[in-house]
Design goal:
Helix content: over 70%
Largest sheet: 2 strands, antiparallel
Radius of gyration: 28 Å
Transmembrane segments: 42-65, 77-99, 172-194, 284-309
Strand content: under 5%
Region (Disordered): 1-33
Distance between the termini: 52 Å
Order of helices and strands: HEEHHHHHHHHHHHHH
Number of strands: 2
Keywords: Membrane, Transmembrane, Transmembrane helix
Oligomer: single chain
Shape: globular
Length: 421
């Protein structure tokens, strides 16, 4: 009898432990959910504040500064001076930035805490040699030089502008392009140096990953990089996609409300759900109009104007021999060639995103895995940690900076082969 009672007590104790463990798990999930909700709320209100500030700054630039910077030509008509063109360009850009910030939903910030993106040491040693090849070292030096030199050349272009003359051909577009590229180039220089110093001081994977990505952005940046958006098939595809989304949103609004009040829901909870649905519809509509139509048109306009200006800046190639070029003309020609190499989207990064997404999309939440750029950033951060741990600070940095689609493909294939084994 005592044995039966002891078995019952033991069974009851195990059940109590299971209930307690399940209760702790539910509490942990509830805590994590509340933290995520608080974080999303903070990001959401931050985006609202950012958008409001952007609207105020844009209104001040376009309505207050632009009219006061008008200059009068001796012939009697008024035209915009250099400061007015700066206010006009950045008034439009800041306004677009505020709308885009409001339209794009907040992304996930923290990477998964587990070893989802970890790379085995054997896989790293099989993919990367112990000592980087000479070609890889030269490629790393070229990427560093390009990432630092390109923004400097773009910023220097502002100093070589001719005097403001409304009668000179393309003079207005020259100033628009210079005021578009020069401030961004200065920001790129500051970010590249800051992120490089941050990585040199802490030697962490996240710092190395952001520094390597910043070098690529700085080296490829130019107003011509938006020219691929001006492709007629791509523009037509963008317009048709936006039209289709708007039609679906209108049809969704005409459908009867699917939210019904249950016994355990108050009237305030029901109204909150309706408001959230209305906000989601408005957010999707705003994102479709702004991100799908307005922003591409702004970038296309900038890119087409950049084509006219960039070609006019290298017109000397048709009238002068190469040995007659000045140092400034050599710099302008190299800058034009570099801008041409950055045309279109970076296929190397796009292929890396595709490979990493195919490998890890099933292991993560669908909402997270849909953001391929964020997914690649998480994977590169963990890979940079593994590279520095396996090969050291210097060699790991060379492999991280020169990482390409072939490296990612080999890593994926060898990791998949080891998993099947």
């Amino acid at each position: 009898m005592s044995q039966v009672q002891g078995a019952r007590d033991e069974e009851q104790g195990s059940l109590d432990e299971g209930v307690a463990a399940e209760s702790r798990e539910h509490e942990s999930d509830a805590t994590e959910t509340s933290r995520n909700q608080a974080r999303v709320s903070i990001v959401f209100f931050g985006k609202i504040i950012h958008s409001c500030c952007s609207f105020l700054i844009a209104i001040a630039l376009l309505c207050a500064i632009v009219p006061t910077t008008m200059l009068q030509h001796p012939s009697g008509f008024y035209y915009l001076g250099s400061a007015g063109i700066c206010a006009l360009v950045w008034g439009v850009m800041v306004l677009a930035s505020g709308l885009e910030s409001l339209a794009i939903p907040a992304a996930w910030i923290d990477a998964p805490k587990d070893d989802t993106f970890a790379t085995a040491e054997e896989t790293l040693r099989e993919t990367f040699p112990k000592t980087p090849a000479g070609t890889r070292v030269c490629e790393c030096i070229f990427i560093l030089a390009r990432g630092l030199a390109n923004p400097v050349v773009l910023a220097y272009g502002y100093l070589t502008l001719p005097a403001r003359n409304p009668y000179e051909a393309l003079n207005f577009f020259r100033y628009c392009l210079a005021w578009f590229e020069m401030p961004i180039a200065l920001v790129l220089i500051i970010l590249t140096i800051f992120k490089g110093m941050n990585w040199a001081c802490c030697a962490r994977g996240r710092a190395l990953s952001t520094f390597a990505r910043q070098l690529y952005r700085s080296g490829r940046f130019s107003a011509l990089s938006f020219l691929h958006m001006a492709s007629p098939p791509k523009m037509l595809k963008t317009v048709l996609a936006a039209r289709r989304r708007i039609i679906l949103l209108v049809a969704k609004q005409k459908e009867p409300a699917s939210i019904s009040r249950t016994a355990d829901q108050s009237r305030s909870t029901l109204m909150l759900k309706k408001e959230l649905n209305n906000w989601e519809t408005f957010n999707l509509l705003l994102r479709t109009v702004v991100v799908g139509l307005a922003m591409p048109m702004v970038y296309v306009t900038a890119a087409v104007g950049a084509v006219l200006v960039k070609i006019s800046q290298v017109s000397f190639v048709a009238t002068k021999q190469v040995n007659e070029w000045t140092m400034l003309e050599y710099i302008q020609f190299l800058s034009f060639v570099n801008a041409l190499t950055g045309l279109g989207e970076d296929t190397n990064i796009l292929v890396q995103q595709k490979l990493v997404w195919e490998r890890y999309s099933e292991d993560l939440d669908r909402d997270i895995s849909e953001d391929r750029e964020l997914l690649l950033g998480w994977w590169r951060t963990r890979l940079c940690d593994d590279l520095q741990r396996e090969f050291g600070w210097f060699r790991g940095a060379i492999f991280a900076i020169t990482l390409n689609q072939d490296d990612v493909s080999r890593l994926r294939l060898r990791a998949g082969r080891k998993e099947t084994e």
